[in-house]
Write a structure and sequence with these properties.
Blueprint (H helix, E strand, L loop, with lengths): L1 H4 L5 H12 L10 E5 L2 E4 H8 L4 H8 L2 H23 L6 H29 L4 H11 L5 E2 L2 E9 L6 H17 L4 H8 L5 H4 L2 E6 L5 H9 L10 E3 L2 E11 L2 E2 L2 H29 L8 H5 L22
Antiparallel strand pairs: 1-2, 3-8, 4-5, 4-7, 6-7
């Protein structure tokens, strides 16, 4: 029994079975048996049903990962064996468990209905690009980008040396940078004590006002031409030499630049409205009767109320 539950040892077998079951041209893969243990059987249909509970954007990653396929199959198998044990113990006759099972089925069906509503709404082929363009034209101020500068820097810290020593070193490095005998990126790799220098070679990319500490910001935005070097700048991080790579003036993004994002937002807003309209119709339908007096008895601690979980299922028939 211990070996049956140790599915890690069977991972490669399970992954191979799934691959065979779902390969192109496989006959009726949904009925393919992936795991069998006594009366317990896990099929391709079970796998696909469990996969459907994974958010859609992640499903392809699961299907492409042997480890994740194994995890899903492990979950299905173990819970199926546990469910069989629960039935043998009579837990399926517990009224609370029966009611919870009914509610879960209804929730699954309800979510399927909402998904169907969304699919039906999309089948009408709304012009989301037109809706996105309307939103863009009505709110162009939202798509303005501030002035930005692209900069590189070299940082010399004063933590493990005196401030005077740090100043002398940073001035030395600045003089080397002014000679342009070595590219600034090489000097950054050689001298900079910024923890990110191995990854970015001193390149900080574009920054806007408010994105960095004030002394650094003021020096960076004072630079005018690409290639200009700042004087030595002191901040709470240490001493900097800043090199301007590029300036971008404040500008408004074009519709094409933001179209994909706006189309996605328009689609989501449209689908949310479709779903909310339908839910409001349900909630506001005529003939709904609400026993609010009975609702009060549901409050925790109300006299005469007892949690169903505190009451074991009775097999006496009383």
């Amino acid at each position: 029994m211990h070996e049956i539950f140790n599915l890690r040892g069977l991972a490669s077998i399970l992954i191979g079975l799934v691959a065979m079951a779902f390969e192109v041209g496989a006959a009726k893969p949904e009925k393919e048996v992936l795991i069998r243990y006594g009366d317990v059987v896990v099929t391709g249909a079970d796998y696909r049903a469990e996969l459907a509970t994974v958010p859609e954007q992640y499903r392809a990653n699961v299907d492409a990962s042997g480890e994740r396929i194994h995890q899903l199959l492990d979950k299905i198998f173990v819970y199926r064996v546990l469910a069989q044990e629960a039935r043998e113990q009579g837990l399926d006759q517990n009224p609370l468990i029966q009611q919870r099972a009914k509610l879960e089925v209804e929730e699954i069906l309800g979510k399927a209905r909402l998904r169907q509503l969304r699919e039906q709404a999309l089948a009408d082929n709304p012009d989301f690009e037109a809706l996105a363009r309307e939103r863009y034209q009505a709110n162009t101020e939202q798509y303005q980008l501030p002035e930005q500068v692209k900069v590189s820097h070299i940082l010399i810290k004063a933590e493990e040396r005196s401030e005077e020593e740090a100043k002398q070193l940073v001035e030395k490095v600045r003089k080397l940078a002014l000679t342009e005998e070595k590219p600034f990126a090489e000097l950054a790799v050689e001298y900079s004590e910024d923890s990110s220098v191995k990854r970015n070679k001193g390149d900080l990319g574009f920054i806007a006002r408010g994105n960095t500490v004030k002394p650094f910001e003021e020096a960076a935005f004072a630079l005018q031409q690409p290639g200009d070097l700042s004087p030595v700048v002191k901040s709470r991080f240490g001493f900097h030499i800043i090199r301007l790579e590029e300036r971008q003036p404040a500008r408004t993004q074009s519709f094409e630049q933001v179209k994909d994002k706006l189309v996605q937002q328009a689609q989501q807003t449209y689908l949310n409205k479709v779903v909310q309209t339908h839910l409001n119709q349900i909630r506001n339908a005529e003939g709904i009767q609400m026993n609010r007096k009975a609702w009060q008895n549901l409050k925790q601690g109300s006299p005469g109320q007892r949690s169903p979980e505190a009451t074991p299922a009775s097999n006496s028939g009383d």
